[in-house]
Specification:
Length: 98
C-alpha cells in the first residue's frame, strides 16, 4: 500500500454464468464475518471489492508474516514454536512431536 503496510488480497474471478446467488451470499457473509471480528488473534478486513466486468470479488486483509496455524499443529517446526503458545495449545503441539 502507499503507506508502506503490506496487505493480503484474496481474489475470485469467475465467469458470470458460473456465479450464483448462493456464491454471492457466501461472499457477503464472509465480508460481514470479517467486519465483525475485532480480535488481536485474527486478521483485520481492510476493504472488499465487487466488480462486474469481469466478474470478480476481492477481500483485502492485513498481512501477517508469522506463518499459519496449520504449521505448528501439523508438526512443521512445532518444536521451535512450542514455547510461544499458551498452555492450552501444548497438547496439540506435543501430539505432533510424539
Amino acid at each position: 500500500m502507499m503507506n508502506g503496510h503490506e496487505i493480503s488480497v484474496f481474489s475470485l474471478i469467475i465467469s458470470e454464468n458460473q456465479w450464483t446467488t448462493y456464491f454471492e451470499l457466501q461472499f457477503q457473509n464472509e465480508v460481514a464475518d470479517f467486519a465483525r471480528l475485532n480480535n488481536e488473534n485474527t486478521v483485520m478486513l481492510l476493504a472488499h471489492c465487487r466488480e462486474s466486468e469481469p466478474l470478480s470479488r476481492m477481500l483485502l486483509l492485513e498481512y501477517t508474516s508469522n506463518g499459519t496455524l496449520y504449521e505448528p499443529l501439523h508438526c512443521y517446526g512445532a518444536s521451535e514454536k512450542t514455547r510461544e503458545y499458551e498452555p492450552n495449545s501444548r497438547p496439540s503441539i506435543e501430539k505432533c512431536q510424539a
